[in-house]
Specification:
DUF2127; elongated; 6 helices; transmembrane; 0% strand; membrane; transmembrane helix; mainly alpha
Length: 155
C-alpha cells in the first residue's frame, strides 16, 4: 500500500530534528560567551540606542537566559532531535510502530494548541492547529487503512 504522505510527514519531522539540533549547537556555542557584552557590542556597532524600549527588553531577556543552565537546554534539545529523527526514519520506511508513535505525539500537541488559541487567537495559532489536525487525521487514516489491509490478508 502506498502512503506518500508519510514521506512528507517524515521530512517535516526530520526538519524539526535538524532545527532542534541547531538549537543545541547554538546554545553550546553561545554558552561560552558573555551574551550581555556581546549584545552591547552589537548595539555599539549598529548605532542602536541602549535606551530603546525593545533593546531594554532584549537585554533583560539575555540576563534571564544567561542565568539558565545551558546543559539542560542542550540535553532537552538533543533528546527532542533524536526523537524526531527516529520518527522521521520510521515513517520514511513505513514502520508501523512509528506511525502510532507519530499519531500519539501529534495528538498530544492539540490541547496546547487549543490553549494557545484561547490565549491569543491569531492566524498563526489557527494555522498550526489546522496543520497538526490534518497530520493527525492523515495518520489515523493510515493506521485504520493498514488495519483493514492486515485483517483482509489474515482471512
Amino acid at each position: 500500500m502506498k502512503f506518500e504522505g508519510l514521506k512528507a510527514i517524515a521530512v517535516i519531522d526530520g526538519v524539526k530534528g535538524v532545527l532542534a539540533l541547531c538549537l543545541a549547537l547554538s546554545v553550546n556555542a553561545i554558552a561560552q560567551q558573555d551574551l550581555h557584552q556581546l549584545a552591547e557590542q552589537i548595539m555599539e556597532d549598529w548605532l542602536i540606542s541602549p535606551n530603546n524600549y525593545y533593546v531594554t527588553l532584549l537585554l533583560t531577556f539575555i540576563e534571564k537566559l544567561t542565568q539558565q543552565d545551558p546543559l539542560l537546554v542542550i540535553s532537552i534539545s538533543l533528546m527532542y532531535a533524536c526523537f524526531r529523527f527516529v520518527i522521521a526514519y520510521g515513517l520514511w520506511h513505513k514502520l508501523r510502530w512509528t506511525e502510532w508513535f507519530a499519531f500519539i505525539s501529534g495528538s498530544l500537541y492539540i490541547p496546547f494548541e487549543l490553549y494557545a488559541i484561547y490565549q491569543t487567537p491569531n492566524l498563526l495559532n489557527f494555522s498550526v492547529l489546522l496543520f497538526n489536525l490534518a497530520v493527525v487525521a492523515y495518520l489515523y487514516w493510515v493506521l485504520k487503512r493498514s488495519e483493514k489491509a492486515l485483517a483482509m490478508a489474515a482471512k
